[in-house]
Design a protein that fits this description.
The chain is about 45% helix and about 10% strand. The chain is mainly α. It has a two-stranded antiparallel ribbon with strand order 1-2.
Length: about 100
């Protein structure tokens, strides 16, 4: 009985860690999962092609919690929520990104 419980706990822990890695590389609409990802990850500003978050206008130098690829560019966002908002209508929002 103890072995079964231990196995279940290990299995769930292993599944959780791979799910986090997968969520970090794909867009998600689950805001609970997105908040977890943005709290765990930060990105170097040298990796992105924008100077400002295209959704809220925050400078990327203040911190990047999420990224997205758009028209062969890597865009940095201050939060996953801003990224998801941008992805709703990227053509209208791209000008605010101030691409390098």
């Amino acid at each position: 009985m103890v072995t079964f419980s231990t196995s279940c706990i290990l299995f769930l822990a292993a599944c959780g860690s791979s799910a986090t890695d997968q969520r970090a590389t794909t867009a998600t609409t689950d805001s609970t999962l997105s908040v977890l990802d943005s709290a765990e990850k930060t990105y170097d500003i040298k990796l992105v092609d924008n100077k400002k978050d295209p959704t809220c206008g925050m400078p990327v130098t203040a911190g990047i919690s999420d990224t997205a690829h758009y028209e062969n560019k890597v865009l940095g966002f201050c939060s996953t929520e801003c990224k998801l908002e941008f992805l709703k209508n990227p053509k209208e929002n791209i000008a605010a990104a101030e691409l390098k």
